[in-house]
Amino acid sequence: MKCLLVLSALTFVVLLAGSTKGEKRYSRKLTETVDGCLAFFDKTRDDLEHVIMNDTLDESSEFPAKMTLCVFRSFGIFDDEDRFSKIALVNYLSNEMFPEASKKDPKIAEAAASLADKCEPIVEASDKPALENAKILVNCLLAHKNEYDKVGKPVDSMYDVDAVSNHPLVPSK
């Protein structure tokens, strides 16, 4: 079994592999942000690929959660004082994860808002530090991932390791 618990923190950052009808997936800003966070942690795309592909990943590693928090902070989902922003989450999910599709299909923004509505009270109720709240948020998003399925997005492919190799954030071999 893949290390889904540990990898879940990276899921909404880098594992939504595949696209519909060849549309461009992810914004340039998201790709640049992931690269910036990798540089901040003195990691490379090869390191990220290793985390994604390694079956024996050390589950005590905080790298996936730190990467996720770094990306979330870059998009204002968590601010410098570790406060959560539902508006920033909606913008991130609709405009950064699916930039081209969201321009064509308003249901994507509706699905993003629905996800944020479900996850906001869970994150807001937590008194844990931002690193833990990033994990809580990702787990909530994963628990309600069917919101994107309703608008035809291939979210179920997020655990498809073969699809990950075609992802723009993973270096080509």
Structure in words:
Helix 1 runs parallel beside helix 4, helix 2 packs across helix 4 and helix 7 crosses helix 8. The chain has ten helices and no strands. The protein is an all-alpha fold.
Provide a quick synopsis of the model:
Helices cover about 60% and strands about 0% of the residues. The protein is an all-alpha fold.
Features:
173 residues, mainly alpha, disordered N terminus, disordered C terminus
Helix content bin: 55-70%
| Portion in strands | under 5%
Tell me, rounded to a whole number, the average pLDDT.
69
- Mind describing the biggest β-sheet? none
- The total of beta strands comes to 0
Question: Distance N terminus to C terminus?
Answer: 24 Å
User: What is the number of helical segments per DSSP (H or I, 4+ residues)?
Assistant: 10
Helix/strand order:
HHHHHHHHHH
- Poorly predicted spans: 1-24, 152-173
What structural class should be given to the helix and strand makeup? mainly alpha
The coarse silhouette is globular
- What is the radius of gyration computed over CA atoms, rounded to a whole number of angstroms? 15 Å
